[in-house]
Amino acid sequence: MRDSAPSDGLRFLFTGLYALWVLLFCYAFFAFLNTPSEGDGFTAGMNRPLTYLGWQGAAGMLAFAVFGVGRHWPKGSPARRLSLLPLVIALLHVIGIVGVIFWARA
């Protein structure tokens, strides 16, 4: 084993955080589909997208933790590259939401 390989504790932490990120990411879609539309007037149905965004926000914050733990692996290793995926998806969500807001204002 190489000296730069992370400890078993870091492997367990990385695996646990990644699994939790996947669960939160997928649960956001499940919660969006199963949340009943509520509200009157302007806010009618706003609880569905806000539920989705809340769970995606939690997954996005966890993406930074996965990215940080993934930095302990050597450059170019599969685990280090895999740690980028949640962060990239979170950033794409932010770009998409900002794009929709600017598109709606035009």
Features:
106 residues, mainly alpha, 4 helices, 74% helix
Structure description:
This protein is an all-alpha fold. The protein has one domain (8-105). It is 74% helix and 0% strand. α2 (47-70) packs antiparallel against α4. The mean pLDDT is 91.
DSSP E strands, number: 0
Q: Order of SSEs, N→C?
A: HHHH
Shape: elongated
Strand content: under 5%
Biggest sheet character: none
Question: What's the SSE blueprint?
Answer:
Blueprint: H1 8-34, H2 47-70, H3 78-82, H4 84-105
Helix pairs in contact: 1-2, 2-4
Short structural description:
The protein is mainly α.
